[in-house]
Amino acid sequence: MLTEPQIQQFRQDGFLNYGAPVLTENEVETLRAALHRTLAGKSEATPDSNRNIGGSDQSVVTQIVNIWEAEPAFAAHLHNDRIVSMVAQLMDGADTLRVWHDQIQIKPPHIGGPTIWHQDFPYWPVISPPDLISAWVALEDADEANGCMSMVPRSHLWGSYNGPHGGGTIQNTERHGPAYEPSCVPDGETVAVVSVPVRAGSVAFHHCLTWHGAPPNHSDRPRPAIAVHYMAGSVRYTPQGRSHLVEEHITVAPGEILRGEHFPTVYEAGRVLPPPPAPNPLTAKL
Ligand SMILES: O=C(O)CCC(=O)C(=O)O
Predict the structure, then answer these.
(1) In a domain? residue 164
(2) Which of 121, 81, 71 is nearest to 100 (CA)?
(3) What CATH number should be reported for the domain holding residue 94?
(4) Is the CB of 135 under 6 A from ligand 1?
(5) Number of domains in the chain
(6) Is the CB of 120 under 6 A from ligand 1?
(7) Is the CB of residue 105 below 6 angstroms from any atom belonging to ligand 1?
(8) Probe residue for ligand 1, chosen from 103, 208, 209, 223 as the CB with the greatest number of ligand atoms within 8 Å
(9) pLDDT tens for residues 45-71?
(10) Domain membership flag for residue 278
(11) 203 is in which domain, residue-wise?
């Protein structure tokens, strides 16, 4: 559980680096093995997307969306008791939490590309209000050398920026400095960049309006991580023209609360829900 000062820090800054492990070494190892199965094309199902969003073979960021649909260990991870309890504490008393989607990002050694500065919410133009918190868990130690994330404190209070790329992207710079669109920054505010190193099996939380990014990986270590984007139970399907990859899974009508089998409920009435039982291999194929 989080302490009151940790909760206050998240409210003030828009992110929180928890610092202590939330997964055991065994759990991390199980997730890594599941990730390798998906990368090798050996999972029972395919995730929604598995591609290089880094832009070239010299700047690689492998993004896998909804690996939980492909690998039971990641489906169980969505319901991680420690993580979900903390998200519930940070979500201002929400009594229900669902998963919008998950997202692996791997920056391979030497050629791992940067994550451009952005807010998450403008990339999700089919849902509102912006009551989502991401839990970013490192699957190997992540630091500045291999491309851990950086956050801009208080930027979750600066509104949602729809940049020229249709998302919250601000201009990227070669050195990944604090580039930003000045019109986003309220008078009297300053743009600071805080690096968020996370040990394997630990977690950092960020609000969906917090500006964040990550430098390239010039080290000889990979940087795999899993982010789960948790939404408050009040988040609705509110399409406005632009689409989103997982929109095809939405079965509710515009304006309705976003729920359904592809958006698992992980917290209800003050308690974390366990993952559904894994299919019985003896009966699954009958
Ligand atoms: O893993 C990364 O470098 C970026 C992840 C991210 O932008 C997010 O979780 O919102």
Answers:
(1) yes
(2) 121
(3) 2.60.120.620
(4) no
(5) 1
(6) yes
(7) yes
(8) 103
(9) 999 999 999 989 999 999 999 999 999
(10) no
(11) 4-272
